[in-house]
Amino acid sequence: MAGLLLSGSAMANTYGYQEEVENPGFYAMVGDLVIARPLLLGVTAVGAAAFVVSLPFTAIAGNTREAGQELVVRPGRETFVRCLGCTKTGAGRQYMDEQR
User: Fold this and answer.
1) Is 95 exposed, middle or buried (0-12, 13-18, 19+ CB in 10 A)?
2) Contact predicate 56/64, CB 8 Å
């Protein structure tokens, strides 16, 4: 089952799906707004709570920066910086700069 799912995404990338991902349509934007962004906001909040709980241990180990990056910054960037409907962070800004 996992092989079938992975092969489908590989085939989609091979046959030009990447162009559509960088220039999302109406349904991709609505789905992102209604489903993905609230979930990512929840992941960011849970990651921030996990970071606070793990802070004493990460401070002792010396990897506070990496833990903060993975638990808080990366989900926050995907939630607030990524364009609506895009799958890559910064894809919308790059596309808008190319259109000017």
Assistant:
1) middle
2) no
Residue type for 82, please?
R
Q: Write down the residue that tokens 């992102």 correspond to.
A: 32
Residues contacting residue 79 through CB under 8 Å, at least 6 positions apart: 37, 40, 41, 43, 44
Residues shown for the chain: 100
Match 């506070």 to its residue by tokens.
64
- Mention every residue, 6+ apart, whose C-beta is less than 8 A from residue 41: 79
pLDDT tens for the chain, 100 residues: list them.
545 444 554 445 555 444 445 678 899 999 999 999 999 999 999 999 999 999 999 999 999 999 999 999 999 999 998 888 887 776 555 555 665 5
The kind and range of the H/E element at 54 are helix 37-61
CB 85 within 8 A of CB 25: yes
pTM comes to: 0.65
